[in-house]
Amino acid sequence: MTAYAIGNLHPKPVLDEEVFAYMERIQATLDPFDGRFLVHGAPAREVREGTWPGALVIIGFPTYEAARAWYDSEPYQALIPLRTRHMDGDVLLIEGTPDGYEPARTAASLRAAQGGSPAA
Asked: Where is the DUF1330 domain (predicted)?
């Protein structure tokens, strides 16, 4: 099942040279794990609900294990301080949905777990 590394980053107005070095070197850390950028630092084009005070990064991986192995890898761990010294943010690893995922089935399971009756 696919997995994603997702970051909501808050860069400073003026980027330091270390941030550029991080950006130049990150792809080499992704390649051994078949990671690829799906979104890279894009500000929200439209915030339709709530607020979004950051830049979004989404990196896709073929599996959760690959995402975890990339993040824990020595080459990527060495790069992290180049980013974190110059921008705050939140980073998470998350699994995607399986093929054939049906949100109505998830709703039914959640409803049943709460003791509710099936939807009419």
From this structure: 2-96
